[in-house]
Amino acid sequence: MIILGLETATQQVGCAIGGHEGVLGSFHAARGRRHVETLAPSINFLCRQVGIDLDDVGAIAVDIGPGLFTGLRVGVATAKAMAQALRVPTIGVSSLDLLAFPVRYTSRLIVPVVDARRGEVFYAFYRQVPRGAQRLSPYQVGSPDDLASELLATGEECLVLGDGALRYASMFDDVARIEFGERGNAYPSATALVELAHPRAMREEFSPPWELQPLYLRRPDAELKWPERWGRAS
Predict the structure, then answer these.
(1) 12 with 192: CB under 8 angstroms?
(2) What is the pLDDT of residues 34-43, one digit of tens each?
(3) Is 96-185 in the same CATH topology as 2-94+187-226?
(4) How do the domains of the chain map onto residue ranges?
(5) What is the CA 200 to chain-centroid distance, rounded?
(6) Which element (helix H / strand E) includes 19?
(7) pTM for the complete prediction?
(8) Rounded to an integer, what distance in angstroms lies between the CA atom of residue 149 and that of residue 174?
(9) Which long-range CB contacts under 8 A does 220-229 form with residues at least 24 apart?
(10) Radius of gyration for the alpha carbons in the chain, expressed in angstroms and rounded
(11) How far apart are CA 99 and CA 193, in angstroms?
(12) Cα dihedral across residues 178, 183, 187, 188: positive or negative
């Protein structure tokens, strides 16, 4: 089965195509946050480069978050529209799962951290297991101080990675047993998305497009500002 993966949860936008042969090709760009303008052309470019027609795609995989509100809307809406047009199912995968997957071979506690803006981060804890990384905690949102306290309380050697970890690296200075991930692993990748989605597709763990929902963990900025705006209007 050919899977098309769409990644837009952070400031990086990307897509990848793959199947039982592995990932056939991918495209990523992480400047400008032009998700709407970049995603559709990148899909068309990638299909031409790997010689795959969209009619050959058997499932659409998409990063459902947590992440940036606008980016998530773009990715999930595009996945729904394409899946309905192609009459194929969808697979939603968390951005934190995608960050943990490429570093699954480490013996350290894996802590992917996504920058949530407004002085907060999204994060979860993972442990290496055969053929992957197992999530040990719920998906969470909190301040970098909250996360630093949790890391200190574990008493374990931790691998902390993601754009949130890089942005707030100074907040973790007191946590002595931390190793930071490389900048190449700062964002969830469409490549990891296809790799994680393929075994789920083989087990037919699909969702119909209309049931696909972003994982926000908090209300969007615009909604939080509604009371303030209505107060000024009155």
Answers:
(1) no
(2) 898 999 999 9
(3) yes
(4) 2-94+187-226, 96-185
(5) 16
(6) strand 13-19
(7) 0.91
(8) 9
(9) 220/69, 221/69, 221/117, 221/118
(10) 18
(11) 10
(12) negative
Contact between 81 and 110 (Cβ < 8 Å) = no
The model's confidence at residue 70, banded by pLDDT at 50, 70 and 90, is very high
Is-contact 26 14, C-beta < 8 A? yes
Query: 94-121 as b/e, with b when 16 or more CB fall inside 10 Å?
Result: bbbbbbbbbbbebebbbbbbbbbeeebb
Class for the domain spanning 96-185: alpha beta
Would you tell me how many other CB atoms lie within 10 Å of the CB of residue 169?
A: 13
> Tokens 């007191």 identify what position?
174
3-state secondary structure of 30: coil
Q: Is the confidence at residue 9, as pLDDT, over 60? A: yes
Contact 4, 60 (CB under 8 A): yes
Cβ neighbours of 179 (radius 10 Å): 11
Q: How confident is the model at residue 31 (pLDDT cuts 50, 70, 90)?
A: confident
pLDDT value of position 220: 60
Residues 6+ apart with CB under 8 A from 42: 13, 14, 15, 27, 29
pLDDT at 28 over 60: yes
What is the residue-wise DSSP string for 97-110?
Answer: HHHHGGGTT-SSEE
Helix (H) or strand (E) holding 35: helix 35-50
- Spelled out in words, what is the top-level CATH class assigned to the domain 2-94+187-226? alpha beta
